[in-house]
Amino acid sequence: MKVRTRSSAVIGTICLVASLALTTASAGESAVPRQAAKVVLTEVATAQNPSAGTAGPGGTVWLAERAGTVRVLDAHGLGEPVLDISGDTTTDGERGLLGIAFDKRFAHFYISYTNLEGTSTVDEFAVRNGKIRPDTRRTVLTQTQPYSNHNGGDIKVGPDGYLYIAFGDGGSGGDPHGNGQNLGTLLGKVLRIDPRGGKPYAIPPDNPFVDDPNAKDEIWAYGLRNPWRFSFDAGTGDLLIGDVGQSDWEEIDWAPADSKGGENYGWSQMEGSHPFRGGTEPANHVPPIHEYDRTGLGCSVTGGYVYRGKAIRGLKGQYVFSDYCDGTLRSLRIENGKVTAVSDLGVNGGEVVSFVQGGNGELYVLDLGGSVSRIDPA
Questions:
Q1: How far apart are CA 91 and CA 207, in angstroms?
Q2: Dihedral of CA 27/52/72/345: which sign?
């Protein structure tokens, strides 16, 4: 997680701030700069260190606050907490309440957080009439974290109804335990599980490594350093991952909706499309569709969403993302898995820690300092 207040930065080895110009590059081929859609940011609420969010029932947006509370944003504003696990988590390092998600029927609510020992934990609650039933809480999955950074922690229910979980490589710097390329650990991976198919969960039978005795069955993709935010395109089902780099390159990874999983995004042999500290590119390396270096203010990519709302016609179908240290919103036009255009949207979201996609497809920007803003047409 990227963790910084207005007065101090607590983001470990993630941040490297230099000149004012953020250089962007498309991996594999040059992207053509295009005139950006005209947008503004409209502040709709102020939260206490908002860290993640999800579309909720009845057109609401549910927001996680890093210290452990969940609040609901509706037409009346941001309500009082509907869930409080602040006694079960800690905010040291990059820890806290890091992800929330509903299943497709809004019948179950999932939270991803680090417990008091720093262990990554995914819990499930039953939901009735749009309200969480605290007495139904159960732990679905846990993963010990050797360090307090690179926890990942984002969760999403995919188009297939399965729960996807992103974990970083375990932390420190440079992947000292080699977790990114090690299929024997859940660290440095995106997982895919069926939380309703077993106790505590079941493995989807078509997961890519279920027949490999040397690999964890839960793994969907690997070779990731800190996949802080990922999403599925609501229009196509494609998977997009913002993976935070080590020292030089921030990257956006992509997989098509018909992927069978098993993608190797290269860390820690590769940082983006570049060998890392003398690493050798894996034969099955899937390079990023977009990367940018740290010659500018960018230091920690925040993955977003493909815009599928109706309010901003010129933005439709483009992937919107930002950087925690730079704060500028940008978009990618992607065609057949290739970036064909990169745009600067001309607005700054502050310490952009996450995006939220509402049920109507409109996008919200979360500034860790507190602001919750909607991307609107200018």
A1: 33
A2: negative
Instruction: Measure the CA–CA gap between 207 and 324, rounded to whole angstroms.
Output: 32
What is the phi/psi pair of residue 207, to 5°? Answer: -60, 145
* pLDDT tens string 107-157: 999 999 999 999 999 999 999 999 999 999 999 999 999 999 999 999 999
Lookup: tokens for 194? 């069926």
Alpha helices in the chain (DSSP H): none
**Would you list the DSSP string of 196-247?**
TSSSS-B--TT-TTTT-TTS-TTEEEE--S---EEEE-TTT--EEEEE--SS
| Residue 293, H or E segment | strand 290-293
- Residue 286: strand, helix, or coil: coil
Q: pTM of the entire structure?
A: 0.92
Q: Which H or E element spans position 305?
A: strand 301-306
How far apart CA 253 and CA 26 sit, in angstroms, is 11
Q: Residue holding tokens 């505590």?
A: 200
Q: Is 296 in contact with 311 (CB distance < 8 Å)?
A: no
Q: Are 378 and 38 in contact (CB under 8 A)?
A: yes
Q: Which of 191, 146, 170 is nearest to 267 (CA)?
A: 170
Q: Please, how many CA atoms are within 13 Å of residue 12, restricted to the half-sphere of its CB? A: 25
* Class of residue 329 by CB neighbours under 10 A (exposed 0-12, middle 13-18, buried 19+): buried
- Residue 301 · residue 242 · CB < 8 Å: yes
SS3 354: strand
| DSSP label of 37 | P
